[in-house]
Amino acid sequence: MNDIRAVICDLDDTLKSKDGGFSDFSIKTIVSLRNKGILFGIATGRSSNSVRRVLKEIHILE
Hints:
The chain is built from two helices and two strands. It has a two-stranded parallel sheet. Helix 1 (24-35) links the parallel strand 1 (6-10) and strand 2.
């Protein structure tokens, strides 16, 4: 599995739980992927501004 270049994940009810929060495991996993040079993306029906706001809240987007 050394050929992974990107991981794409749905936001609502997948990455972000029904209660509106993110698990520490999810955040640590995203950070680990990025530290390894693996792109992390969000697939969602939300607007790009909404996604940016959510990712800034969890300190994934600088």
